[in-house]
Amino acid sequence: MNSSKKLSVLILFCLLSTAAIQAQKTYEPTWESLDSRPVPDWFQDAKFGIFIHWGPYSVPAWSPKGTYSEWYQYWLQSSALFGNGNFKGDEVTQYHNKKYGEDFSYYQFGNLFKADLFEPDEWAQLFEKAGAKYIVLTSKHHDGYTLWPNEQANDRGFAWNSMEIGPKRDLVGELSTAIKKTSIKMGLYYSLYEWYHPWWQNAKPRFVDEHFLPQIKDLVQKYEPDVLWADGEWDMEDDKWKSKEFLAWLFNESTVKNSIVINDRWGKGIRKIHGGYFTTEYESEAPEFTKPWEECRGMGFSFGYNQNEDAQDYNSPKALVLMLVNIVSTGGNLLLDIGPDGRGSIPPIMQERLLKIGKWLKVNGEAIYGTRPWKYSFQWSEGIQNYKPKQHYLGGDFILKQTVDPEEGYAVKEAFFTQNQEAYFAIVPKWPGKELSIRDFKPNKGTKVVLLATGEEVTWKQSGKDMVLLLPEYDPNKIKPTDLYAYTFRITK
């Protein structure tokens, strides 16, 4: 055996040994041990996922603008409300009583949640066209209704799952099967707590031992998700949830122990400290994170479908693309939510937004997928940096104010930067004119620059510490409408 073959065999042996050691590692029920498990690489490469909030709350599908419609049961029964705006608190209660009557229980929406127009393969095709690399479906929200047949869903004294009430279908199973025919990863959201479960209200240890733990294990073992997205953790410490014990089981014994990705919502005060990847919600970029992270938000202000939101409440395709670019430039993923209606139709405006994002990604995706942050995430113009309005939930228009429509005196992000092994990428939110200066950057003399929208090579020069791209005359006939959202320049390494 010659030396090169010996080296190849040695490298292969080392790789297999490393993989075997990783696979055999036993995780202890401590954060020190659990946090040592790396987040699988595919997640950090994915960059764009689709969140799906769907359940009985999709039937009334109403809450005041600036609030979450999927919280309908809580708003109704507590006569409380929070979000963007000034509320009396009883808006949903008043709406419900007028629309359905005071004696109409939230639980009656279960029978009205038919999902009769739900076509899982059509959903999967839409998500592929959108350029999404993973999805996360709400298998159970805070109302406790499960989108799969589950024994614990009925322990409140009546059936409360999609196989017995409403659709009479295993919605998690059907969508999982459809998604797994594609290259998209399948994720499941699961709420730890339930607002009005009698054990949660009066016997929390029993709720944890007899409801939460067996139910979440059933979900994992039945559907083997790629992502397990916990939520509803904030009212109780992780020790009381027995989260560490559950995660040790997940990483050591479950059928997805070597592949599952988890987030950071496993107990009061745990977010952005422990768990898998870190999560933000209706925020912006997070350049200070040292772990993979993800921003989740709706296209408007609600996760669940809210028929009270109008076209102007939805973020424009340009704003959504720029939000994605902004997040990716600082190392994050965007989990963008859609809310199907109670019959299983995805509202056309949501489909349109997804398809336009997908068309932009088809041309510019190499600057997004599989990339990592560069030495600078973005380049500011002169002025006051980081404009953000004071809102409970940060609206998507902040990114337009930071790029193409600034307030007087505020700076804009002139360019965003990403990189992979082959190239750097400069993504600009508007056409720069005749020149684009990339400050404090000196590439090699043989570096080539290409405008991805047209495939044209762009000449450049060095001007002191700056690289200056000498741009061709702008020709709108060469640019597709979706490419107008942001222009990408590939700069080879």
TrEMBL record:
Keywords: Glycosidase, Hydrolase, Signal
Domain Glycoside hydrolase family 29 N-terminal: 16-366
Cited SUPFAM superfamilies: (Trans)glycosidases
Domain Alpha-L-fucosidase C-terminal: from-to ranges: 414-492
EC number(s) given by UniProt: 3.2.1.51
Recorded superkingdom: Bacteria
Signal peptide: 1-22
InterPro entries: FUC_metazoa-typ, Fucosidase_C, GH, Glyco_hydro_29, Glyco_hydro_29_N, Glyco_hydro_b
Pfam family of the protein (one): Fucosidase_C
Function statement: Alpha-L-fucosidase is responsible for hydrolyzing the alpha-1,6-linked fucose joined to the reducing-end N-acetylglucosamine of the carbohydrate moieties of glycoproteins.
Family: Belongs to the glycosyl hydrolase 29 family.
This protein's name: alpha-L-fucosidase
Higher taxonomy: Bacteria, Pseudomonadati, Bacteroidota, Flavobacteriia, Flavobacteriales
